[in-house]
C-alpha cells in the first residue's frame, strides 16, 4: 500500500466519521487526524519529487530558474572552487569560416552531442557534408560507427592521441596494444611470454542504448610472474591468485584505424588545422571580441534564437572581411610547409 492509498483511505475514514479537523492553540488533534496530516504531507512531497524528476528527465540536475539548463562546471571559475552553474552545452558547425549551424544541449558531455547535432544539420541544409572533423571529446565507438554507416568521413582525434606520443604509452606492458598477437590461436603473448587465450565475448551497453561487442582474453597463469606489479596495476592487492584479463573491441578498433588513416593523411592534417582555426576562432570571436559570455534569456528556445542572431552577425562580418582580404572563394587555409 503506497502513500496515495493510505491518504485516500484516511480521508474517507474522516468523512465517514464526520470528524471535524481542528487547528490552532488549545485544540487537541485526534490520532486519526494526525495520521491523515502526516499522510497528506508524504503524498504532496512525493508528487513534488515526481514533478522534479519529470523536469530533470535523463539529466542529473536542473536549474529552478531555468528548467532547460543543467548545472555544469565552467571554464571560467572565478572562485576557484569548482562551483556548478546552470548552463548549456553549445555546439557550432563551421564550414569555410561561416557558422552553418548551432546546437544547444543540456548535457555537459560532448560525446553524446555529435549524432543529434549532425542530424540537425541534415534537416537544415539540403546538402550533406563530406567530412566531420572534431576534437578528442567526440571520439567514441558509437559516433565513429554512426558516421561510417551514414556515409560520413570522420576525422576525429582519438581520446589517447596526445598520450600515444609519450614513451610511457609505448612501454605499458599491461595493454593489449603492446602485446604480440597470434592470429592462428587467437591469443596474445604478454611480457613474460605467457599466453592470454580467448575466453568469451560480452556485450556492453552504454546510456544511449548502443551495444559494443567486446572479446575477453585471460592469461593461463600469472604465478611467479615478475611483471605482475606493472601488468596488473589496477588489481586489488587483496586478490588471491589474480590472473591478467584484457578486453578488446574489434569493431571499434577497425573504425578507429580507418579514422586514424584519414587523420594522418595530408587532407586530414589540413582539416585538423582548419578546425583549430575556424571553429575555435568562431568561439573566440563570439566570446572575446563580441564579449558574449553569458546568455541573457532563459529556456532553450530563446537561447537558440540568441545564438542564431549571433551567428548571422558573425557570418555577415566574416563575409565582409573575406571580401576585403580577397578570400571569398577560399574554403580552407593551407598548411605551411616546414623545412
TrEMBL record:
User: Which protein are we looking at?
Assistant: Transposase DDE domain-containing protein
- List each copy of the Transposase DDE domain by range: 189-319
Q: Which superkingdom?
A: Bacteria
Amino acid at each position: 500500500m503506497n502513500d496515495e492509498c493510505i491518504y485516500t483511505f484516511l480521508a474517507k475514514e474522516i468523512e465517514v466519521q464526520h470528524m471535524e479537523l481542528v487547528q490552532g492553540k488549545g485544540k487537541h488533534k485526534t490520532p486519526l487526524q494526525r495520521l491523515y496530516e502526516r499522510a497528506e504531507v508524504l503524498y504532496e512531497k512525493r508528487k513534488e519529487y515526481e514533478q522534479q524528476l519529470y523536469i530533470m528527465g535523463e539529466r542529473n540536475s536542473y536549474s529552478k530558474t531555468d528548467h532547460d539548463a543543467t548545472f555544469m562546471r565552467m571554464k571560467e571559475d572565478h572562485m576557484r572552487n569548482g562551483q556548478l552553474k546552470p548552463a548549456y552545452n553549445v555546439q557550432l558547425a563551421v564550414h569555410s569560416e561561416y557558422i552553418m549551424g548551432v546546437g544547444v544541449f543540456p548535457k555537459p558531455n560532448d560525446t553524446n552531442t555529435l549524432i543529434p547535432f549532425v542530424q540537425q544539420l541534415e534537416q537544415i541544409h539540403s546538402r550533406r557534408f563530406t567530412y566531420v572533423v572534431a576534437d578528442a571529446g567526440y571520439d567514441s565507438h558509437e559516433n565513429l560507427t554512426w558516421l561510417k554507416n551514414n556515409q560520413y568521413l570522420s576525422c576525429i582525434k582519438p581520446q589517447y592521441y596526445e598520450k600515444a606520443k609519450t614513451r610511457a604509452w609505448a612501454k605499458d606492458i599491461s595493454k593489449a596494444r603492446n602485446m604480440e598477437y597470434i592470429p592462428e590461436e587467437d591469443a596474445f603473448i604478454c611480457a613474460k611470454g605467457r599466453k592470454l587465450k580467448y575466453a568469451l565475448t560480452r556485450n556492453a551497453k552504454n546510456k544511449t542504448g548502443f551495444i559494443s561487442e567486446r572479446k575477453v582474453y585471460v592469461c593461463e597463469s600469472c604465478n611467479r610472474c615478475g611483471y605482475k606489479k606493472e601488468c596488473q596495476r589496477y588489481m586489488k592487492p587483496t586478490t588471491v591468485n589474480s590472473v591478467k584479463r584484457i578486453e578488446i573491441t574489434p569493431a571499434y578498433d577497425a573504425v578507429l584505424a580507418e579514422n586514424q588513416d584519414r587523420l594522418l593523411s595530408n587532407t586530414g592534417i589540413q582539416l585538423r588545422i582548419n578546425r583549430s582555426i575556424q571553429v575555435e576562432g568562431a568561439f573566440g570571436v563570439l566570446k572575446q571580441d563580441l564579449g558574449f559570455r553569458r546568455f541573457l534569456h532563459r529556456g532553450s528556445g530563446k537561447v537558440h534564437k540568441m545564438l542564431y542572431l549571433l551567428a548571422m552577425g558573425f557570418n555577415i562580418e566574416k563575409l565582409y572581411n573575406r571580401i576585403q582580404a580577397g578570400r571569398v572563394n577560399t574554403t580552407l587555409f593551407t598548411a605551411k610547409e616546414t623545412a
